[in-house]
Specification:
The chain is α+β, with helices and mostly antiparallel strands. 28% of the residues lie in helices and 31% in strands. It is globular and about 60 Å long.
Length: 494
């Protein structure tokens, strides 16, 4: 699976890694959060290095639907239920600032973007009542949202929220421009080097441990989707979610707005024109990572729904993305607990990373290199812990515990050591240990089926030929190579 964005990405130049290097700030992760944070700090005179385990944009930023919208499904009413109206207003202010900054950057650097009207729609009466709550939260926060039933969709809706003046972009073009300006400002961008830990260096500095040696910095920023260091305990406060998307070449008239359903299964729509071809991008069918038996069925369902309703051909590209839902409703942005004030993180954007990533970068840059003028960024992401949040986290962790028990129990039942058919994988018992066996492109791989993060038993993802952890969302290639998640190393060979 490859996204339209990664397939059409401009080249991004990188620098060599120098073990023992010294910096003001090291940023782990070259997605939108990491590169924007790095650029803001470089503009303020800091010596900054960005360390990316794969390639810039390889994970969430390169696999998004790339909507810059302040209309975000039922996000605002959900935040209101956790944080009250003040939390919603701060969140909207943050996202507006992130949207404004990124659109201005796109205009200055000729990054492809379109201004569109955003819609959140429902099909039934229950969904319409949910839209009413979202409308109330949005208007209280100062957004010019209105209710309508007039959409471009080829089917009836019970209601739709509408917000004009939103945007959609090509995210890899934005990343390439961010990277180019960052390096022009004297920044160092390294690809293929994974941050695996952090310790203490002399002078109260952070020793950043990587797969290729260590460097030191005054500050370390974890911009890796979910923070890769466990000392903040974020893995226990986030629910990892996987969703799917595809780009269909257009053969007739299609909706030009940006659409998102609130019914299950979820549906997302937007257009894109890339290298002379018009596409309709559809997305949805999300689920907790590693907890669906056949993800390929979800991909097929999404493709069938799109072709049944719109004038498009079979998908030219299909891909998936990983997002993290925070227990407290708001993203977690700021200093990491038990990090001695030197380690920062940004996570929990809950599928709205285009605006939240930039807003988080503004918060982080202000915390590490304050500007001369007054700033309200420190007020944007300040989640208050409520009994509802505790219950939400407890529910998610109870499900994690059940997945742990069920995974180990089922792995002990499997005894068939034979290689499965092409594209399939299974977990079997070998010397009382779970082993993952799969066949991909004619090659049989046998690896440990135990996640090196917290020992969850992995599940086979038949849509992406990967081993996925149902506990905290770590993912591994068929041969055991680490793809993403809180784990910092790959799977052991069996």
């Amino acid at each position: 699976m490859e996204s339209l964005w990664l397939a059409s990405a401009p080249s991004i130049s990188a620098d060599a890694f120098v073990p023992g290097g010294s910096y003001d700030t090291v940023v782990a992760g070259a997605g939108l959060t990491g590169l924007t944070t790095a650029l803001l700090l470089a503009r303020r005179g800091q010596k900054v290095a960005v360390l990316e385990a794969r390639q810039a944009g390889a994970v969430t930023s390169g696999n998004t639907t790339a909507k810059l919208s302040l209309l975000q499904g039922l996000q605002l009413s959900r935040i209101a239920s956790h944080q009250g109206p003040d939390g919603v207003r701060d969140y909207v202010e943050a996202n507006r600032a992130g949207q404004d900054w990124l659109l201005e950057f796109c205009r200055e650097h000729d990054v492809d973007h379109d201004i569109r009207t955003a819609y959140t729609y429902a099909l039934g009466d229950g969904g319409r009542r949910s839209l009413d709550k979202e409308l109330s939260a949005a208007t209280a926060a100062g957004l010019a949202v209105r209710m309508t039933r007039d959409t471009e969709l080829p089917f009836a809706v019970s209601g739709a929220l509408e917000l004009a003046g939103q945007a959609q972009i090509h995210p890899l073009q934005a990343l390439a421009s961010l990277a180019a300006e960052f390096r022009a400002q004297g920044g160092t961008l390294v690809q293929g080097v994974r941050v695996t830990g952090a310790g203490t260096a002399s002078g109260n500095r952070v020793r950043v441990i990587t797969s290729s040696g260590s460097v030191s910095a005054q500050h370390l920023v974890l911009a890796t989707g979910i923070p890769v260091l466990d000392r903040g305990g974020y893995f226990a406060r986030l629910l990892p979610l996987r969703s799917y998307a595809m780009a269909h070449p257009v053969t007739g008239d299609v909706p030009q707005g940006m659409y998102l359903s609130i019914d299950s299964p979820s549906r997302s729509l937007r257009t894109a024109r890339v290298e002379g071809t018009d596409y309709l991008i559809s997305g949805g069918n999300g689920h907790a990572v590693g907890r669906h038996p056949h993800p390929q069925a979800l991909v097929d369902d999404l493709a069938g729904w799109t072709r049944n309703h719109f004038a498009v051909s079979s998908p030219a590209y299909s891909w998936s993305a990983q997002d993290y839902e925070p227990a407290a409703g708001l993203p977690y942005v700021g200093q990491v607990p038990f990090g001695d004030g030197s380690i920062f993180a940004a996570t929990g954007f809950n599928k709205w990373g285009m605006t939240n990533a930039v807003a988080a970068a503004l918060v982080l840059a202000e915390a590490m290199a304050p500007a001369a003028e007054d700033s309200r960024t420190g007020n944007w992401y300040s989640p208050k812990l409520s009994s509802r949040d505790v219950l939400s986290a407890a529910r998610d962790n109870a499900e994690v515990g059940l997945e742990m028990v069920a995974g180990w129990a089922s792995s002990m039942a499997g005894t068939d050591q034979a290689a499965p058919p092409e594209g399939q994988g299974k977990v079997v018992r070998r010397k009382a240990k779970p082993v993952g066996v799969c066949t991909v492109n004619g090659e049989v791989s046998r690896v440990s089926a135990v996640c090196p993060h917290l020992a969850g038993v992995l599940s086979w993802n038949d849509a992406e030929a990967s081993w996925d952890c149902p506990l905290h969302g770590s993912r591994f290639a068929a041969d055991g190579k680490l793809l993403e998640g809180p784990a910092v190393r790959g799977l052991d060979p069996a």
